[in-house]
Amino acid sequence: MGTASAQGELWSGSPRDWAKFQEPLFTPIYQAVLEAAGIGPGRRVLDVGCGSGLFCHLAAQRGAQVAGVDAAPGMIDIAKSLTPAGDFHVGEMEELPFGDDTFDLVAGFNSFQFAADPVNALRNAQRVAKPNGKISMAIWGVAQDCEAASVLKAQSSLLPPPPPGAPGPFALSEPGRLEALLLQAGLKAGPATNVDTPFTFSTMDAGCRAFMGSGPGSAALRLNSEEKVRATLGEALAPFKQPDGSYRLENKFKFVVASA
Question: The domain that contains 135 carries what CATH number?
Answer without folding.
Answer: 3.40.50.150
